[in-house]
Structure formats: structure tokens, C-alpha cells
Write a structure and sequence with these properties.
The chain is 47% helix and 15% strand. With 273 residues, the protein is of the alpha/beta class.
């Protein structure tokens, strides 16, 4: 019989986080779906007539340490353990580096990098005590390969990748695994929620035109056959969890595997496509 796991996921209001929460719950695991607004996933489940008593939406604000701690403490008190932490929450920022304000970058890192750090720090004591656990950090091809106009987003994912590598080595002796997931372009609403450099308004108009062109290009990719389906990506992650795969990095699509392999083979090259 498959082992029933206690799983905590962030960023479950939509997209991959929501799909993954549903897939894991359907497979019988106890899933705590965390987001700033848990009513979003509740409304979606009701609309789809999905009544999963083992999928529990919870409020968590990754930008506030007290919120992360309170939610993790609640889950640990209720369940006595956390087997898997999935750091999925994140958003995008687009525009030339000089168009990104420091305050924008700080907000981005608060969610994409420091949010996962807070979650990890709150679950690790119990995982070490139980001498088992799995931490999955949802990164991106953008965590390995830089792209023009995505400097802020890439920087946040590069940081998460570096943290994950160090963490994996630190936790090996405690029987706690770390896996980094690197999707390519996802068929999601990510681009619809992307933030634009707020200094563009005081810069030459050509910068704004270039940024808008880039957004249109990404939208076309999201709606093309090259985009990875959320269900497929969720199932790849589900398999990695349930089959206890001995792997650190997982690219979820053919294009992602190709470009990451090229970058790792020839790290001196700049690969933007």
C-alpha cells in the first residue's frame, strides 16, 4: 500500500500549485494548500464539484515570518509531522535591469526566495527529528539560463537553485532529500500576472516597446504546443514524490531538458533561446 504523506504546498490559488494539490489529494495524501487567499482554491474546487476532504486550504503570507510560522505550527500540531514541503509560490518580473526598482526586486525576492527560506526553516526541525523528509523547490529553466528582460526573475530563481544545492548537501546525513523542479514555459496564467519594471515610465519609449514585445512573445509561447501542460508537470512531480526518485534536478519538458543540458555542458555560453 502507498504511504500516506502529509504535504504542504505554497502558491495554490491557481496554476501548477492548484493542480498539484488536487493530484496529490486524489492520490490519498493529506495536502495543506497554502496561499494568501485560500478562498480561490475553495471556489475552484466547488465549481469543479471536487470534494476532497484531505485537501485543506490554509492562509499563508510568505512575506511575513509570523504568518509562515503560525501556519507551519498549526499543521505540525494537527498532524504531528510534515513529510513533504513544496515551495511553489512565485511570480514574474519583466523589463530591462535598469527599469526595475530596488523595491520591486525586494518584493520579488520576498516571495520567490525568502518565502521558501522561511518555509524550510520552519519545517526542518521536525523533519530532522523524524529523520526523514522531502523538500521540493519549484524553480524554472530561468534558474539555470538567463534571458533578456527577465533579469529580476532569473536572479530570484538562480538564488533558489544555489540555496537548494547547498541544502541538499547539508541535509543528506539527516535522510532529508531536496529536489529542484525546472519547467520550461507552462500553460498557465503566469504571464497574465507578471509585473513590469516600474521605472519604464521615466525611460526612453523604446524600452517599453521592447518589453511589450517580449510579453507578447511569451504569451504566444504559453498558448502554443511548446507550452507544458499543468497536469503533465504535476504528474511528474507526483511520481518523484511517490517513487522516491534519487535525483536532484528534474526538467519537466523536452525543451527544458535540451536547453539545460546545453548550458550545463557549455557553461561559458550565453543561451537565450
Amino acid at each position: 500500500m502507498k504511504k500516506k504523506l502529509v504535504i504542504v504546498i505554497t502558491g495554490t490559488g491557481s496554476g501548477l500549485g492548484r493542480e498539484l494539490s488536487i493530484q496529490l489529494a486524489k492520490n490519498g495524501h493529506d495536502v495543506f494548500a497554502c496561499s494568501r487567499d485560500p478562498s480561490k482554491i475553495k471556489a475552484f474546487l466547488e465549481k469543479q464539484n471536487l470534494f476532497l476532504t484531505n485537501l485543506i486550504p490554509l492562509k499563508m503570507d510568505l512575506t511575513k515570518a509570523v504568518s509562515v510560522k503560525a501556519t507551519c505550527d498549526y499543521i505540525l500540531k494537527k498532524m504531528g509531522k510534515i513529510d513533504v514541503l513544496i515551495n511553489n509560490a512565485g511570480y514574474g518580473l519583466i523589463g530591462p535591469i535598469e527599469s526595475l526598482s530596488v523595491s520591486q526586486l525586494k518584493r520579488l525576492f520576498a516571495v520567490n526566495f525568502f518565502g521558501p527560506v522561511l518555509c524550510i526553516q520552519n519545517v526542518l526541525p521536525q523533519m530532522k527529528k523524524q529523520k526523514s523528509g522531502l523538500i521540493i523547490n519549484i524553480s524554472s529553466v530561468s534558474g539555470i539560463i538567463g534571458s533578456p528582460l527577465l533579469g529580476g526573475y532569473c536572479a530570484s530563481k538562480f538564488a533558489l537553485e544555489g540555496l537548494s544545492e547547498c541544502l541538499a548537501m547539508e541535509l543528506e546525513r539527516f535522510n532529508i532529500k531536496v529536489i529542484v523542479i525546472e519547467p520550461g514555459i507552462l500553460n498557465s496564467s503566469f504571464i497574465e500576472n507578471i509585473e513590469i519594471g516600474n521605472r519604464l515610465q521615466i525611460m526612453p519609449k523604446s524600452y517599453l516597446i521592447e518589453t511589450q514585445r517580449c510579453i507578447r512573445s511569451i504569451k504566444e509561447l504559453v498558448n502554443s504546443k511548446k507550452a507544458e501542460k499543468l497536469v503533465k508537470v504535476a504528474k511528474i512531480i507526483l511520481q518523484a514524490i511517490e517513487k522516491n526518485q534519487e535525483v536532484f534536478r528534474i526538467q519537466t519538458g523536452d525543451w527544458a531538458k535540451k536547453v539545460v543540458a546545453k548550458k550545463l555542458k557549455e557553461p561559458g555560453l550565453l543561451i537565450s533561446k
